Amino acid sequence: MIKTLLTLVCEDKKHRLTNGENNMALNIELMKQKLASSQNKNAGKSNDTKWRPSEGDQTIRILPTKDGDPFKEFHFHYNVGKNPGILCPKKNYGEHCPICDFASNLWRDGVENNDDQTKNAAKKLFARKRYYSPILVRGQETNGVKIWAYGKTAYETLLGYVLDPDYGDITSAETGTDIVLSYTVPGTPGSFPKTQLKPRRRPSVLCDEAIADCDALLDSVPDIEAQFNRLSSEDIQALLDDYLSTDSSSEMSSSETAKYGSAVDKKISDFLS
Q1: Helix, strand, coil fractions of the chain, as percent rounded to 5
Q2: Alpha carbon distance 267, 264 (integer Å)
Q3: What radius of gyration do the chain's Cα atoms show?
Q4: For the chain, is the Cβ count within 10 Å smaller at the N or the C terminus?
Q5: pLDDT digit string (tens) for 166-190?
Q6: Domain boundaries of the chain, sorted by first residue
Q7: Closest C-alpha among 94, 125, 92 to residue 107
Q8: What is the dihedral of CA 7, 13, 17, 22, to 10 degrees?
Q9: The pTM is what?
Q10: What per-residue confidence (pLDDT) applies to 27?
Q11: Which residues contact 214 (CB under 8 A, 6 or more apart)?
Q12: Closest CA to 150 of 57, 52, 222, 45
């Protein structure tokens, strides 16, 4: 399997070298511009809008959005270095994704060679879906709008309520419904938290005496997609290269190839640990 990984990495790098990539001196001024651009994009962004449920029961209200879709889904790649999650350009935007390519090649090789270890490593690189909604936490209205991230089961449960005529548009500011969220933390290592969602029996208005200006509240609902950094395919390729290789030179030699293989070996061990 390590030989397979080494071959995939080296062939990819050889292809890019052959096509004139990475064979010129680093453009320092361009790097300064990229850093400034990235910092400007991140300016004003804060994790204060992100919300995680506490263990036990809490009541939330999912808020309506201007585009009529308060249940957003995005694909992320995980397990690539220390990145908390990389937006997949292919799954989200139909663009080229180096991580998808690498993971697909890895999976294909694992299937052809009946190598479960290689297939498991590929699985950990496949893009995964996460779901997001803007919410108001009851009893904490003064904290403003929050963004709640959740999994597929909760997503399908919420859509089921929306499509159920007994509930309908649970996000409506006039006739929507608060939801009781029951959260149970994992009891054993390797298990997952459990989220149960139960709408209140009676509809209720979004804004009561705890909210002075309902229009201002709705106007403050953030663009969820804007909360994530959208990287170019080139930037993602650089992150993948950096993760898979300790080789920083522009030429491949036998000693560097050996070092490359050792690095990939370590990454696979990390994947499977």
Answers
A1: 45, 15, 40
A2: 5
A3: 23
A4: C
A5: 999 999 999 999 999 999 988 777 7
A6: 2-7+50-272
A7: 125
A8: -160
A9: 0.71
A10: 66
A11: 173, 206, 207
A12: 52
Q: Where are the beta strands (DSSP E) in the chain?
A: 50-51, 56-62, 72-77, 86-87, 128-137, 146-150, 179-184, 194-199
C-alpha triplet 198, 201, 206: angle, nearest 5°: 85
Quote the CA–CA distance of 103 and 59 in Å, as a whole number. 40
Q: Taking a C-beta distance cutoff of 8 angstroms, is the pair 250, 17 a contact? A: yes
Residue 132's beta-bridge partner residues? 72, 149
The terminus-to-terminus CA distance of the chain in angstroms comes to 16
CB 159 within 8 A of CB 169: no
- Work out the angle between the directed axes of helices 116-123 and 254-272 (0-180°, nearest 10): 80
CA distance linking residue 77 with residue 83, whole number of Å: 9
Strands annotated E in 63-121:
72-77, 86-87
**Any idea what the Cα angle at residue 35 is, between residues 31 and 37, rounded to 5°?**
115
**Alpha carbons 105 and 4: distance in angstroms, whole number:** 10
Two tokens at 209? Answer: 């005496």
pLDDT band of residue 194 (cuts 50, 70, 90) is: confident
Q: Pick the closest to residue 64 from 211, 214, 197 (CA basis).
A: 214
Q: Find how far residue 119's CA is from the centre of its chain.
A: 21
Q: Hey, what CATH topology would domain 2-7+50-272 get?
A: Replication Fork Single-Stranded DNA Binding Protein (3.90.198)
Exposure b/e, 3-19, CB count within 10 A at least 16 = b: ebbbebbbebbeeeeee
Could you tell me the two tokens for 76? 């992320």
- Tell me which residue has tokens 């919420």: 158
Query: Which residue's structure tokens are 């009851």?
Result: 138
Look up tokens 């790098």; give the residue: 13
The rounded distance, in Å, linking the Cα atoms of 56 and 107 is 40
